[in-house]
Amino acid sequence: MDRLISPDKDCGAWDLITDHLISTANFTHTPPTIRTQACEAIADIVIAAMDHILSQQKEPDEHMQTRLLKALDQCINYTPNNNYQPHDEKQPPSKTFPEVQRMGLETLNKLLQTSGHSFTCGWSLIFEMVKHVTTTSPSIQLDTASAIDEELEVIDDEIRTERASIDTTNSSLRVVTTSSGGGPSRSSGGLIKVAFASLQLICTDFLGLLSPDCLRQCIATLGAFGMQSEDINISLTAVGLLWNLSDFIQTKHLELEKKDENMEVAEEEDVITKEMLNIDQALEAQETPANFSILWMLLLLQLSHVCTDPRPEVRNGANQTLFRTIMMNGNVLSRRLWSACIWEVLFPLLDAIKMSSIRAVKMMQAQAARSPSLSPLADRDPSGFLLHHSRDTADKQWDETKVLVISGISGIFRDFLGKLYTLPKFDRAWSLLLAHLEDSCLRSSQEVSLASIKSFQNIASQRPDCDCQETVTSLWNSAWVSWLSIGQSITAPREEGEDELQTRRKQLDSELHPLTLSLSSSSAATISEDFSQDMLTVYVGMFTDLYSVISATFSLADVESMLVVLKDILVYSTSPQYRTDIDNLSPLQEAVLKVIRRLDMDVPGIPALVLRDLSVYMTLGFVSLQQENGQKANGSTSTGPRRFTTVTYIALNKKATKLVVEYFKSYADDLSLYSEGVFERIIGAFGLPMKLKYDCPPSFKHGDDKTPLWKFATTGLLDILRLGLEKLHGFGEDVPLERFVGVWRTLVDVLHGSLLSPSTPPSTMTIEELDVDEHFDISVLSVIQSDIVIFIGEERVPDEVIGRLVDLLRESSRLYYVDEVQSHHHDDLEDELATKESDEGNEVLERTSDILGTTGTIVPVMKEAFAYAALRTLFALCSSDNQDHVEVRRRIARATVPVLLERCETILRNYTADEPLLGRCPFPRYLNGVRKEEILFFLKQSIKLKLQKDILGYNETDQGVARQLLLSGPRGHLFYLYPTLCKMITCDDSAVVALIRDCLEVAGSEIGLSR
Asked: If you count DSSP H runs as helices and E runs as strands, how many of each does the chain have, helices first?
């Protein structure tokens, strides 16, 4: 052995023996036994030679180490030597045999185990031998592979990229194609395992012996093993070894920096270019911080290659390792490393993941269409293991990877923004990140969409520690634009949303377009139509984080745009699931109200916008109900379901009502509330449940607050009404007449619809509950008398609005109706109105209180006390008891007194006409009750009433001065009714006659004729 390997002698004998054995082992027709013996001989010679070198040589012999490794390299990567090739031209050429390669790899592993610490050279050759098996392992070709490739030629053209940092699309698909037909051969799988054992040994024990260039080769070899498709466990282990190697490289880097403090300064002046990041380009042997920076970047690039592996387990593990590596070392990275990391790793990876996902899904679809029998079972992976339903398709598996990548990149920007914002071209990086987040939010599955918006929120929630606050504000303003764009695209029609996104992509710097291939119109999917409520909740909630930074520059137009988006998001109707929202707000509704409460209400114009939208929120639970009631009133029915079948907005109505009352009281002095019609909208919003009354949906399901919604709304309206009317009239001409009149028209319409609501109480209500509701309506009448009358009588209020309010009181004062079907009128005109035909042809009852003698059945109203209160209010409006706001009350009295007198005269005439019709028959039960109480009440009120001066109209040309004086006095109503009272003096009812006598006496005393 000493003669064979002695460095002082010719090596011809060594070459002769080894070449002959290697040629024999790789010759095609060598018998298996001979080949085995040749392999064993080679292994024995190499191991014996290495042992002899270690025992005889005190100093490492690099020449002999190289000679031994070259012999093993010829076994693994055989290149025929013509001097030792058989000369028979008919024999087929030699080739590499797996058993020979296995022998070479096993021998290499033994050398590393016994003598690895003594190797001073040849590491490059070792990595070449180990890596060689990953490039020559046999693969099984499918008959359909070429057909699938043809189908995907168009896809290739769309997603081909020019960048060299990440180019895994083709290789990934090639692995998918070849591995789908079956597993690896035993020989190739065995070679991979044997070779990887040597690599694993190097990475755990001998990293300190490697030069920077050998470390580069180690990184490349680990990357190759990570992407090989023969053994998934080896791929996962290779990814873990890259993590260990990263830690080693960074440790060495820090040690070198400590040795020379000036190195860092010099390093900062250089920029890592794409050419430096070529894994095949040799590095200098000298250990410098710059070389180790390049090595660390090369390691990240190799990891990023594995991040697009077609196997979910491998690529997900690689992604986790990649982002953990960056996060662990982020605080010690230089500016040039951060720039290279962002532009050469992170953004290319993000785009490549999206493109690989698109291609994998399209390839799966093409393969299924071409050969359905070859498609794997939907519920199993290629190995036959059962898959969860959330991961049983290619797109679902890629969704998991997208979530990892998006979350990882956003986490890096969140945690290291204080370092990143100082990088050159960071504004472009920020714009590109926002563009990708927008795309992932809008065009992805629900899982990816939710993860994307959470990532966006994580970035926005971080308050960066930056010296320049203007920079932060600028970045967050850009984020606000993206937030707004996402919201508008979610709620806008599909075509408008697509056009908006393409426009925003074109606004990106042209240099960024190679990194936005997945955003192009040819690659991107359509905007989703089923965003989850969880995603929308996170989306809305993140605005508060943005607003905390940009509030100082947030304009009124921005607030309006934001509120429009919130309103549209709130009524988003195509989410797959909704949460109950009767007793408590849904998370989305709570998030919307939280955003509104977060706004700076002291900014002029914001209170009006907020109250306007809150008034809309109050109506959401009743809009469809109102439409249904309108259809019923028109005789039509709705054949389709209500738009919202699971969202009730009941809790939102109650919460928004409280906020409206709170905000209105705080900002009632804001002119814009009245000049822009906000006060009018608020009254209308309160009016919807008030009009529906008993037709409102239930206000609770399991909660403690059982107040009906119409009562809740009425209480809220009355709480702000007087304050609002005072401010409205206080602003005077500053409020446009149209808006001023609109408030009064809306208010009277709401009161009319509430007090005269056609809804009927449910049969389950008790008498006590009905009595409570009746007294509640009476309290509304008292508010009309005390808070509304003093404002509605002012000059700017139209007469028709006052007349409608008075008409409301007249209708409310009816105590009974008459069943005309059973009555006998002497007036033929009244007979025509007795009955009507319904839509089904049945007779319905016609009710009226304007009677001229009838024997029909009297039907009292349900709310008798309320009717008396309304009648009492009519008398009070004409009374002179209240001397405040004299002109206002006089105008109201002038509009009310004709209605009151006509009402009273009708009562007297009807009572007088009914008595002779009945003859000696006693009055029906109700006539003895309701009608008698009514006329007694009227006569008593007439005696007490003192009219305001000059409110009773008269015709000056018809009578003289005496009539004018009588009617304009405080007892003018008695003189007006004098003829009717005289006709009733012959009534048989003593109580009625006594009160009539008192009325005549009061009238006589007014003109000085009393005793």
From this structure: 46, 4
Closest CA to 670 of 609, 594, 599: 609
Q: Phi then psi for 991, rounded to 5 degrees?
A: -65, -40
Q: What is the pLDDT of residue 1011?
A: 56
For 898, the token pair is 């004709």
* Secondary structure (DSSP) of 328-369: HHGGG--HHHHHHHIIIIIHHHHHHHHHHHHHHHHHHHHHHH
Phi and psi angles of residue 837, each rounded to the nearest 5 degrees, phi first: -90, 135
Integer Cα distance of 865 and 869 in angstroms: 6
Q: What is the pLDDT of residue 172?
A: 33
Q: How far apart are CA 39 and CA 384, in angstroms?
A: 38
Furthest C-alpha separation in the chain: 163
Please report how many Cα atoms fall inside a 13 Å half-sphere around the Cα of residue 898, on the Cβ side: 9
Torsion of CA 672, 677, 681, 683, to 10 degrees: 80
Contact between residue 255 and residue 236 where contact means Cβ atoms under 8 Å apart: no
Whether the CB-CB separation of 249 and 296 falls below 8 Å is answered with yes
Token pair listed for 328: 């662990």
836 - beta bridge partners? 844
**Residue 179 C-beta-side C-alpha neighbours within 13 Å:** 20
To which H or E segment does residue 858 belong? strand 857-860
d(CA 468, CA 520): 34
Nearest to 914 by CA among 857, 973, 998: 857
pLDDT on residue 348: 93
Q: What is the pLDDT of residues 92-144, one digit of tens each?
A: 455 678 888 888 899 989 989 988 888 878 899 999 999 988 886 543 333 33
Closest by Cα among 951, 812, 799 to 872: 812
Q: Mean of the pLDDT values across residues 738-757?
A: 94
Cα dist. 620→617, 625, 678, 689 in Å? 5, 10, 17, 11
The chain-wide mean pLDDT, for the chain, equals: 80
Question: CA of 141: how far to CAs of 137, 177, 180, 186, 188, in Å?
Answer: 13, 8, 9, 16, 15
Q: Supply 816's token pair.
A: 């009974």
Cβ count near 913 (within 10 Å) = 15
CA distances from 502 to 406, 415, 518, 520, 586 (A): 21, 30, 12, 8, 34
Token duo for residue 985: 């003096």
Which one-letter DSSP state was computed for residue 492? S
Lowest pLDDT segment from 513-517, 599-603, 812-816:
513-517
Whether residue 663 contacts residue 610, with contact meaning beta carbons closer than 8 Å, is answered with yes
More confident residue, 213 or 261: 213
- What does the alpha-carbon distance between residue 272 and residue 290 come to, in Å, rounded to a whole number? 9
Render pLDDT for 29-58 as a digit per residue (tens, 0 to 9). Answer: 888 888 888 888 888 888 888 877 777 765
Which uninterrupted H or E stretch holds 837? strand 835-837
> Which three-class secondary structure string do you get for 129-157?
HHHHHHHHCCCCCCCCHHHHHHHCHHHHH
Helical spans, DSSP H, in 185-288: 186-205, 212-227, 232-259, 262-269
Q: What span, in angstroms and rounded, lies between the C-alpha atoms of 218 and 653?
A: 66
pLDDT at 67 over 90: no
Alpha helices in 371-424 (DSSP H): 394-415, 417-420
Instruction: Find which of 178-192, 705-719, 904-918 is predicted with most confidence, using mean pLDDT.
Output: 705-719
Contact 346, 431 (CB under 8 A): no
What is the token pair recorded at 527? Answer: 């905007």
Comparing 303-307, 519-523, 693-697, 732-736, which segment has the lowest mean pLDDT? Answer: 519-523
HEC string of 622-655 equals: CHHHHHHHHHHHCCCCCCCCCCCCCCCCHHHHHH
